[in-house]
Amino acid sequence: MTNRWSRILRTPVGIVGVGLLTLVVLLAIFAPMLWGDKAGAVDTENLLAGPSAKHWFGTDNLGRDLFFRVLVATRLSLTLTLVATVLGTLIGLVLGTAPLLLGGRLGRLVTAFVNVFVAFPGLLLVLVFAVIFGVGARGAVLAIGLAVAPGLARLCQTLVAGVAGLEYVAAARVAGVNRFRVMARHVLPNVAEPLVVNVTITAGAILLSFAGLSFLGLGVQAPDYDWGRLMQDGLSGIYVHPLAALAPGIMVVIAGLAFNLTGEAIAGVFGISATTGLGKALHVPTGETPAADLPHDHAVEGDLVLDVRDLSVSFPGVHGPVRPVRGVSFGVGVGEAVGVVGESGSGKSLTALSIAQLVEEPGRVDARHLRFCGTDLLEAPTGGQSHDKLLGTSLAVVFQDPMTSFNPTMRIGTQLAEVGRHHQGLDRRSAFARAVDRLRAVRVRDPERRARQYPFEFSGGMRQRAMIGMGLMGSPRLIIADEPTTALDVTVQSQVLELLQDVRREQGAALLLISHDVSVVADVCDRVLVMYAGRIVEDVSTADLRTRARHPYTRALVAAVPDMTTDIDAPLATIPGHPVDPAEVPVGCAYAARCPLATDRCRREDPVLLSGPDGGRVACWHAGESIEAVTCEEATA
Amino acid sequence: MSLWVLVTASFLMIHLVPGDPVRAALGMTAPTDLVEAKRHALGLDDPLLTQYVHYLGNLLHGDLGESIVSQLPVTETISQRLPATASLAFLAFLVAIAVAIPLGVAVAVATRRGRRRRTELAFASTSVVLGSIPDFLVGVALVCVFAVNLGWFPVAGRDGASSYVLPVLALAIGPAAVLARIVRVEMLSVLEADYIRTARAKRLPALRINLRHALPNAVTATLTIGGMLLASMVAGTVLVENVFAWPGLGSTIVQSIVTKDYPVVQGTVLVYGLGVLLINTLVDVALAVLDPRSTIGDL
Fold this sequence. Notes:
Chain A: It is a multi-pass membrane protein; Peripheral membrane protein. The complex is a heterodimer of chains A (637) and B (299). Chain A has 22 helices and 13 strands. By secondary structure, chain A is α/β, with parallel strands linked by helices. Chain B is built from twelve helices and no strands. At the A-B interface, α4, α5, α8, α10 and α12 of A face α1, α6, α7, α9 and α10 of B.
């Protein structure tokens, strides 16, 4: 606890806030003792004088020194603030805890009562209460204290209601612990921190309200003076002597800031944990990416829709850049369906995003080349045009979560029509007509009506159809589908996959299907890229996947998929160990730690992706070796 | 419900004043028979419930009683002064919105994902400081600089367009700073949403992504707080009007509190409260229009 409080002083906001607050409190305590006389002393030779060496801020209409008056006024201003804060907090606590303590109808009545008052701005309440309690400091304290109470009560209610629903509180109540005891022992200690923060910030607001009220002449009355009173006195002479009005104003701002900043600093320390996402990056094996063997021997260069060479993606980390994708090379032929499989964190989604040019700062995409339809996307386009039109019309992207991938405030048809409007030069009406037509193409029933609906009126499967339809606004040469069925019901999954297949056939588009599900990829694709720790470890045709995969990781993935012959009594096959953290990629083969075939060489040298005799590629020193043999040896040893 | 509380509170206000309000208003030296006559005229001798029914009845006819001090009908005073206050608050609101939304959006787009740290820091610190200076202090500072020293705008009063500049600025600066911060935070979170990635995948121009796709989603969340700010701006006119000697309701309410002219206070509080309720309702309606998921029927 003390640890956390001291952390406040280590944030810049905290230092400034607590520093100012200390200063103001010290002034409140000592200023009247030290300078009380000087502040009251009348200098008849200098009435309403401007700043001088004798009077730094000048004097008021009785010749009293304004600098000292401003300092001395700190005590009254702060005292009034504190009293009103305590009053407001107490009433707020009572009203805020009442619904839980009273329960039932009476509790709800209190809640409703508080809610009505919260709707009105504080200043208006202050004025109403000021009328009732009369003009003067006492009236102002009561008025402001009462006026801030509803806001604090509302906050308290919300916090208490949140904690009261928790299990241990419910347990205490079931155990018959008295309501007041539950509140005092279990609830209030758990809402103390946010309350402290808000009371601190409220104190700042109260300070300003007092200044305002005194400024209006409704608060502190002469001969007493606080900052607001001094401002009002100064305002009348603002032509002659602007500092008289400004100086107390500046003090009000400083004191107000002191409360606000302290509150925010406390909130920052208690609210946000100090650990950051990319924090634990250790080191990245830099330098020589093993030069990948010439890929895609099986496809002639000219037939490639997509040609990626040495693609890597890096993000800045605490200890240097982290590279979740480390030198990936592959090609996708015209009309070909290529799957990318791997566990989460293998870099498969980032590979897809970087091809679609959707990796954002601070992420960095590097590649020897990244050609899409013959254009290198990493090179500045010729003729000053951007790649937008090419990507917008020839590349379709289908995202994982159809529920969040549509803009909730725009009609589905409009979201589809945008592509036509911006890349195909269609006017509003024909773009919308094309959107309706495309929805029909992805078999959305009643597309005219559906196009005018909002995403929340679509089911998940429908939205994924619409998403595919959006890709069909142009004439896609490649469809990138990033886990397109993961978020969907099993029954809808196969429909969406079928639709993807049909669209591919009709349009002659290639497909890059990212999935963690080997069986989905095996059903849909011609070829599979298996990724592990940001590298392609095997590139194999789906025909060979089940029986002739050569990388031990691929074989483990395939073995983990249950099929009709799987013994349902045996435990499901799993791959032992954990995927590699991209921030801590080991030297040598990244899979070595989990691999039954791993030898010293694997732990030293990273294997290179090499073409095999049957057209596939594999990166393994022990490609194709029998795993059973090894496990048997281990068993006997 | 809120309306009823408002009306009842403004009715009860006069009865909660300790002592005799009429005696307080007319002063200790006023002759007793005058006080008695006034009490009778105001109907303060009747039972509370009768007075309440009477008050509600008059309210329905648009009768708010008459001033103890000036004898003028309260409605007349209010209708004279309301336009000055309403135009001030409305203009200030427009200025705050016109500054805050473009600024918040621009800063969000410029500084997202840790870019331009210095711009972000400058924006954050400036907006915190501006947001925590109360409007009447801003008003005093503006008067010092632009009216007294530079003489560009009148110091006080309501006389032509130039007299609006300083009071409107005084009211608008603080809320604009707060609102810009909120817009920025909302924009930042919206810009990370999946549907923004979809929009970028469609290769739309950045302007369209930011304004057509992101902004409406950021504004729905901003509106609620914007409405509260506007409501507090209405109350803020009370202070700012007193800085600029603005002939609006704000000066009226303060004067009548000081002179204990209770019928006038009742009337003005009622008008202010109604203004706030109206704003809250408008915000709810605007939310319903902007967000297709909620409908006005749910209000």
